[in-house]
Specification:
The chain is α/β, with parallel strands linked by helices. It is 30% helix and 21% strand. Helix 8 (198-208) packs across helix 9 (217-229). InterPro entries: AMP-bd_C_sf (IPR045851), AMP-dep_Lig_C (IPR028154), ANL_N_sf (IPR042099).
């Protein structure tokens, strides 16, 4: 039978023209006006909307909200559309198992259906979410990673080791595709500590001359400790130029120093949308790839657009996903804020501070919003802090909520009690209210944070709902 293969399903030359990378990225966007960018965004938004109106998922959600096709004439009308989130996708899967009705494939004849890349989320918080990608949107998603790496200053012919997980989850696979399709680097798909033991990972780096590490920085930091335990000196035996990861609010100095002075770069994206923003050589926030992603920052409670420079949820519309699984006003529940200073690169793109925590993983304590991911960086000024921590939210017998922060420190057990008042005072000063603190030794929190086996370590144990 005749049916399309992957490379026949999209025009790769047009894709590279529409979504430039390398020197072409600067040539295309440096000095572009915001009005010209808005025109490009509007054209792509309307193409995505045309596809989305044919999909039962959006027909149902938008119909229930009373939105009609003629109501959306331009990107300026986007606020008329309701937000969607992972819960809506999972509701679709429950109604129409096993893949849901959000992708737009059901009405395509088998012989005409494009090849599909299929992954799932990790499922650590429940049933894994299906992730489906058409060839065009899959390649643009990968290209945006390659664009980000090259924008950061990835050297030609680098050797990159990836600590992203593989298996059914998307992360490691699309990073491999990005590097092999859109750079000329050698790629080592080491994966997590479960897939390739940490000792073996550091030996791979030494043996093959790895100069770039990519992954979640909590584990990358852990690998520097493993290297030292093996008698391998980061910066001497393993010479890392760049660490490209998800830094969030983590301390850059500690991670850079652990790897002999490597330069760190942050980027942000989620499995459904791909790369949304990336730090550049200016190290001045993260540049949102606004030719591919339309980013709104909305109030975490009202869903109204926040005053620029105010913290809010990142809500994303993918301007390139007009083939399979269009994503329109997807609430990531990740919070950030827009940076309002001048873009030193000369791009018309907005910049964001980066990932600052999750609004659905927030602890509200006596009127103060506490984001667990932000607690670690508060402790970085303490020289004995080893970088690992976890927060526990509890409710006492009177119904009062409390937060306890467990901290790994390089201090003998008998000396820890004398340090507790200093840690409590530090956190009270930075958070605004008093929280509990317990100091423990190196590695004692690993079973709770799962930093050695998870891409994203656990930072909050919420025992109020048990």
């Amino acid at each position: 039978m005749s049916y399309p293969n992957y490379l026949q399903s999209f025009d790769i030359n047009k894709m590279l023209e529409d979504y430039p990378l390398g020197d072409e990225l600067l040539q295309r966007f440096k000095g572009m006006s915001k009005a010209e960018l808005k025109k490009l965004q509007n054209e792509r938004f309307l193409e995505v909307m045309e596809k989305a109106w044919t999909i039962p998922f959006y027909q149902r959600i938008w119909g229930d909200a009373g939105v009609k096709q003629q109501d959306i004439k331009s990107l300026d009308d986007i606020t008329k559309l309701p937000l969607i989130s992972k819960s809506d996708i999972m509701d679709s899967v429950e109604r129409f198992p096993p893949f849901g009705d959000f992708h737009g494939l059901d009405n395509i004849a088998p012989e005409n259906r494009p090849p599909i890349v299929f992954h799932t989320t990790s499922g650590t918080t429940g049933t894994p979410q299906p992730l489906l990608f058409g060839p065009k949107s899959r390649e643009i998603q990968s290209l945006l990673v390659g664009r980000s790496y090259r924008f950061m200053g990835l050297k030609p012919a680098s050797t990159i080791q990836s600590c992203y997980g593989h298996g059914m989850i998307n992360g490691g696979h699309y990073i491999r595709e990005a590097v092999t399709h859109y750079t000329n680097s050698i790629f080592l798909s080491a994966g997590t500590g479960v897939e390739t033991r940490s000792v073996q990972q550091v030996n791979l780096m030494k043996t093959f001359g790895v100069n770039v590490l990519v992954g979640f920085v909590d584990y990358i930091k852990r690998l520097s400790d493993v290297a030292k335990e093996e008698g391998i000196v980061p910066g001497k035996d393993i010479k890392i130029d760049m660490i490209i990861g998800h830094l969030g609010m983590e301390s850059r100095d500690a991670i850079s120093k652990a790897w002999g002075g490597a330069e760190l770069f942050d980027w942000y994206g989620v499995g459904d949308t791909g790369t949304i923003a990336a730090e550049g050589p200016d190290h001045d926030g993260m540049h949102v790839w606004e030719d591919a992603q339309y980013l709104e920052i909305l109030d975490t409670e009202t869903n109204e657009v926040v005053v620029p420079g105010t913290v809010g949820n990142m809500v994303v519309t993918c301007l390139y996903k007009d083939d399979v699984y269009p994503i329109i006003r997807f609430n990531t529940h990740d919070i950030t804020e827009e940076l309002l200073t001048e873009n030193k690169i000369g791009f018309p793109f907005k910049r964001i501070r980066g990932f600052m925590g999750r609004s659905d993983n927030m602890v509200k304590l006596r009127g103060i919003n506490i984001y667990p991911q932000g607690v670690g960086p508060m402790l970085e000024e303490r020289k004995e802090f080893l970088g690992e921590f976890i927060c526990k939210a509890i409710r006492d017998e009177t119904g009062r909520d409390e937060l306890i922060v467990y901290v790994e420190v390089d201090v003998k057990p008998e000396a820890r009690a004398s340090l507790l008042p200093e840690y409590k005072a530090l956190l009270k000063q930075k958070i605004g209210i008093e929280v509990g603190v317990e100091l423990v030794g190196e590695g004692e929190l690993t079973a709770l944070t799962q930093v050695d086996v998870r891409q994203k370590p656990i930072r909050l144990l919420d025992e109020r709902v048990m």
